[in-house]
Amino acid sequence: MTSMIFANSQAAIPLQSDLSYVLSNEQITMQFNGIDNQIIDDHFAVLQFPNQFEDDAKILGDGFQMLAQTGGQLNAPQDIGRCPDNNASYRLYPAQAAKRFYNYLVIEQSHGFTLFGFTSCHRFAGYFEIQQHQAGINIMAFIDGEHTQTQDWRSQQMETVTVIKGTVLADVYADYSAKIQLQHPRRAGVTVDAPVGWCSWYAYYAQVTEQHILDNVDVMCDGQSELEWVLLDDGYQAFMGDWLTPSDKFPHGIKSLLQSIKAKGKKPAIWLAPFIAQAESEVFKQHPDWFIRHANGDLLKAEDITYGGWRCTPWYILDTSNVAVQTHLTAVVRTMQQEWGVELFKLDANYWGSLRGQRLQKGITGVEAYRLGMQAIIDGAGDALILGCNAPMWPSLGLVDAMRISDDVERRPERFEQIAKETFNRSWQHRQLWQIDPDCITLTSLIDQGTEQANYEFHRDVILAAGGLTLSGDPLPALTGFAKHTWTKLLTRQRLSQESAQFQSLANSHSILKLAHQYQLHCLFNYADSEAVAHTLIADFPAMWRDLWTGEALHPVPTHTLTLTLAAGLHSRAIVMTAVS
């Protein structure tokens, strides 16, 4: 088949005779035109990209679900998160199979960056594999057809792919974002000011009570008045699936609690896992026909095919191809929005809504079913914001205002470091695809969870650089002086800029953010496996350089350059450059 050539000289070789390929506006659109009824499996090769890459080139690949990312080098990929798509828990593809880079793959060489990316995800997940051979390297693009049959498809349209090259990483990502937006327009909430507030989960976890919420709102109305949002997280519901029925820890009901929050001038937000239910729930008992099944007709438990869930298991999965289920989801969310006053929905365990199995609609993929379910929620949410969490990443394009992009925070250095890497790898998505949520800020130790001050200092610099949703995960009545000082600076940063700081390479060691006309923020990071490293900061004009947190001048007079060394291990610095006229 004839090769197609991008404007950047990248060749793309079509691999399927039953597909039509059109290269337009630097994107390849694919459509199935075969006359035979085919089964499209989960490893359907569609394009080959021949290349010459440096063996030790840095790489970054995304995962299908939030907890998976891959970094390292082209000849030595490394999992970044705890839960790769092919590990023993998630099992999206075999552990011994070639590494899959879902959504996009970025390769950094000495002369610049190359990004291979799917710009759409309407029906099928797309991924890339690296194949080495004597003449060079092939980047292979695949579609996961979920073993559907083409005669059952409602559309013959498949997905769209691009290749972008450049010398500036931020520019490559900006070009990629623009192409994605053509396929999946952003929701209105993507560009509003990011929510600032408090979340109950990391203070009380599932043991949260009505009194806990009231106590923290009291603090928000007094000493921490700039915290605006109150997110009631997991633990308020009687059972997973029965979201309108409160547990006995909320004796006055959730509607009354949220209305009292609103009466105090705060904005109520709520957590739910819309696509799952436990066996004890009324929705499962009364509507067993609403749930995904195995091919033999048995009900499918999440644990049968993937990670079973973190509590209240086994989880059963709602079949969102069923119109009755869509109506149910819309009604639940509409009740919360219109009657309870919810202004932000945190939708968790979204990945499970995309699981493959037997659904009412034949031939529908898990991606399509997930998007139908999300649209049903959007139909009930009105003008409330939608935050995705534990989500399938690209299947959520155009359906959320904000997206969790990292693992759950824990008050220990290993998790702070992991979250930093996960967040920085996806911070380019902020206000382009969705607002990023780097998870809550935890700066105060609990009785059974805590770490040293230096690790909290690293964590606050990560949140400072990332921007996005800014929610405290600490019990507010127990905030330390250190935490209160941190919040003062974080809120100032958010007022000055709603953007994420931009990194210059995949090493994620130095990010820059323009705060105002004369102010620039430089955040420097070193990681646990790194040696001491010197950073030279450069200004176009004489400037004063100060530590953001202490205000200490780092050079006695204005200067064009400043060199700082970060010690080996987990360390960071936040430096403000002020232009001197």
Give a short account of the largest sheet: 13 strands, antiparallel
Gyration radius, to the nearest Å?
24 Å
> Helices and strands: which structural class?
alpha+beta
Q: Mean pLDDT, rounded to whole units?
A: 97
Quaternary assembly: single chain
pLDDT < 50 stretches: none
Strands, count: 31
Number of contiguous helices: 11
CATH architecture of the largest domain: Alpha-Beta Barrel
Fraction of residues in β-strands: 25-35%
In total, the number of domains comes to 3
The CATH class of the largest domain is Alpha Beta
How far apart are the termini?
61 Å
CATH fold title of the largest domain? TIM Barrel
Q: Report the helical percentage.
A: 10-25%
If you had to describe this structure to a student in words, what would you say it looks like?
With 581 residues, the protein is an alpha+beta fold. The chain folds into 3 domains: 180 residues, no CATH class; 266 residues, TIM Barrel (Alpha-Beta Barrel); 77 residues, Golgi alpha-mannosidase II (Immunoglobulin-like, Sandwich), CATH 2.60.40.1180. The protein contains 11 helices and 31 strands. Strands 1, 2, 3, 4, 6, 7, 8, 9, 10, 11, 12, 13 and 15 form a 13-stranded antiparallel sheet that branches. An 8-stranded parallel sheet has the order 24-23-22-21-18-17-16-25. α7 packs parallel to α8 and α9 packs parallel to α10. The protein is globular and about 75 Å long. The chain starts with a strand and ends with a strand. The model has no long low-confidence stretch (mean pLDDT 97).
